[in-house]
Design goal:
- The protein has 183 residues and is an alpha/beta fold.
- It has a single domain, classed as 3-Layer(aba) Sandwich (Rossmann fold), CATH 3.40.50.
- Helix content is 33%, strand content 22%.
- It has six helices and eleven strands.
- A seven-stranded mixed β-sheet has the order 5-2-1-6-7-11-10, sandwiched between helices. A two-stranded antiparallel ribbon has the order 3-4.
- It is globular, with a radius of gyration of 15 Å.
- The chain starts with a strand and ends in a 5-residue tail after the last helix.
């Protein structure tokens, strides 16, 4: 079974983080919402306080199959300032493990040089941060082990792409039908 960690910092985009957690759990993917702060309660960019499942220091990254980075401001900047998370991203990239980012968060991957030669998308106005990428305006882009998406309105499509990558197209299509998603 796959294990996914969705990382949140103060100012994260609530819909982007919680949609991924909800949808992955619906198909049986072990998914933890992980705070990169020292607190289990994290406030989103719209003032919604959310209880994370774990703190980052509790995560054994070797057992994680995919890192997911939701966007939001200043959540994206706060994620990028989290040294343990950035170190884990470097290791994931070097090992070819799966990394997903939505909204402003693909900018983190661009800053790290992970998008060179890849197709990627992000929130409008952040395209200049996708260093080396072929930028599209599609809802979701899958380029090797990296999935990117544009924003809150694409959170379901982003989640379905993650599900397809981890457990298959049929499972993603079945869930889309169950939640009455028109894709």
């Amino acid at each position: 079974m796959s294990y996914v960690c969705v990382f949140v910092a103060e100012g994260f985009e609530e819909i982007e983080a919680l949609t991924v957690v909800d949808m992955l759990r619906r198909v049986g993917i072990l998914t933890d919402l992980v705070s990169v702060t020292s607190e289990i309660m994290v406030s989103g960019s719209h003032g919604i306080e959310v209880r994370a499942d774990k703190l980052i220091e509790e995560i054994e990254f070797a057992s994680v199959d995919m890192i997911v980075l939701p966007g939001g401001m200043p959540g994206t900047k706060n994620l990028e300032e989290c040294e343990p998370l950035m170190e884990a991203l470097d290791i994931f990239y070097e090992q070819g493990k799966d990394i997903s980012a939505i909204c402003a968060a693909p900018s983190i991957l661009g800053h790290k040089g992970f998008l060179n030669g890849r197709i990627a998308c992000c929130y409008p106005t952040f395209e200049s941060h996708l260093t080396g990428a072929v930028v599209t305006h599609n809802e979701v882009e899958i380029s090797g082990n990296i999935i990117t998406s544009r924003g809150m309105g694409c959170a379901i499509a982003f989640s379905l792409a993650i599900i397809e990558k981890l457990v298959g197209k049929e499972t993603a299509e079945d869930l889309a039908e169950k939640i009455v998603y028109q894709c």
